[in-house]
């Protein structure tokens, strides 16, 4: 909901898999996020990153 409220263009999740806080597999949060965004028609906004991966934010207009 915050993604929509803020008018964001990209969603990057961080710190997933850092701590095991539940019973789900460690890889599950990114998969769950992707599935939910697809349901809401926002799949093109998600930037899935692997651990240690870098994402450079393009300049406005790019």
Structure, explained:
The chain has 62 residues and is mostly helical. The chain has one domain (2-45). 26% of the residues lie in helices and 0% in strands. It is built from two helices and no strands. The longest helix is centred in the middle third of the chain and has 12 residues, at 28-39. The protein is globular. The two termini are 26 Å apart. 0% of the residues are buried.
Mind sketching the topology for me?
Layout: H1 2-5, H2 28-39
Short description:
The protein has about 60 residues and is mainly α. The protein has helices spanning about 1-5, 30-40.
Q: Which class best fits the helix and strand makeup?
A: mainly alpha
Query: In this structure, how is the largest beta sheet organized?
Result: none
Distance between the termini: 26 Å
Proportion of helical residues = 25-40%
SSE string, helix = H, strand = E? HH
Radius of gyration of CA atoms, rounded to a whole number: 13 Å
The helix tally amounts to 2
Number of strands: 0
The count of domains is: 1
- β-strand percent reads under 5%
List keywords for this structure.
single chain; 2 helices; globular
